[in-house]
Amino acid sequence: RRAGSLVGRALAVGLSLALAGGVGSDEAEASRSSLRSAQSWAYQLQGSPTALAGSAADVVVVDADHMRGAASRLRSKPGGGRRVVLAYLSIGEAERWRGYWKGCCAGTRPSWLTTRTQGWQGNYVVHFWDPAWKAIVRERVRQIMAAGFDGLYLDRVDTYESVQAPGGSRAAMIAFVREVAAYARSFKGDAAVLVQNAEELLSSDAFLEAIDGIAKEDLFHGVNHDGKRNPAGMVAESVRLLKRAQGRGKTIFVIEYLSGSSADSVRAEIRRQGVVPFFGGLARLQRTVFVDR
To answer: Which of 22-36, 46-60, 145-159, 242-256 has the highest mean predicted lDDT (pLDDT)?
Structure first.
């Protein structure tokens, strides 16, 4: 979830070589295929979207609650052409600052809300399979799509690893992501869906059918938030799963949190892994995107 909250305080852009041409320039439509062929992206969950609006990013991720009107403002690139505008949505945690909190959780704790956090104060693990929580997410999706967004950026999909759902948490999360994606597409037929982390689910064809891409944090370094190299076996397995998704036409973003000499020392190694590193204006963020060789 590190990017899920860090993006709420920062802006970064990741670049890749062309995966399948460029994003279409048709001002009238942004589609799932546009996300899949994106050559650059940016995200920002707080503050003014002015920097995003002035960027050449093919895809941008913003928070619909923090940036009212962002969908229409960010839709067009400065030099012309259409960009994909996605809205951030946490489906595995409840965030106490959100508008729904007062109605569901202020002064009482519903059965689907736990007291556990996963690293961010005020964000609580939920029983994501519970109908009451699903209803909240559905309403969030409805609001997002009504605001004109091109799709969703789903965070905390990996919460399935922290709770036990009846019949199995993995299957329940796959089903939930499919439900959320289908509901978004009931409003906009080509709504794009990008998920963050939970690459273990990429072995499921049903999961892959529902999404258009994945953003993976800490692939090579810092899985324990210490900046150290991840175990070779862990890296290899994650790369295998990401490559499987890429082979199915999905967009893959890889996020490494390195800076200075530490980032410089792994630049060549990351390139050898088949990804292109991008060091943005914020030294603490490095974004990379899988490309074909």
So the answer is: 145-159
Question: 203-207 long-range contacts, Cβ below 8 Å, gap at least 24?
Answer: 203/241, 203/244, 204/174, 206/174, 206/178, 207/174, 207/177, 207/178
Q: For the segment 18-30, what is each residue's pLDDT rounded down to a tens digit?
A: 233 333 434 334 5
Q: Is the dihedral of CA 202, 249, 2, 266 positive or negative?
A: positive
Structure token digits, residue 234? 């862990």
The reported pTM is: 0.86
Tokens in use for 233? 């076996």
Closest CA to 263 of 243, 282, 237, 239: 282
Q: What is the CA radius of gyration of the chain?
A: 18
Query: Residue 72 has what pLDDT?
Result: 93
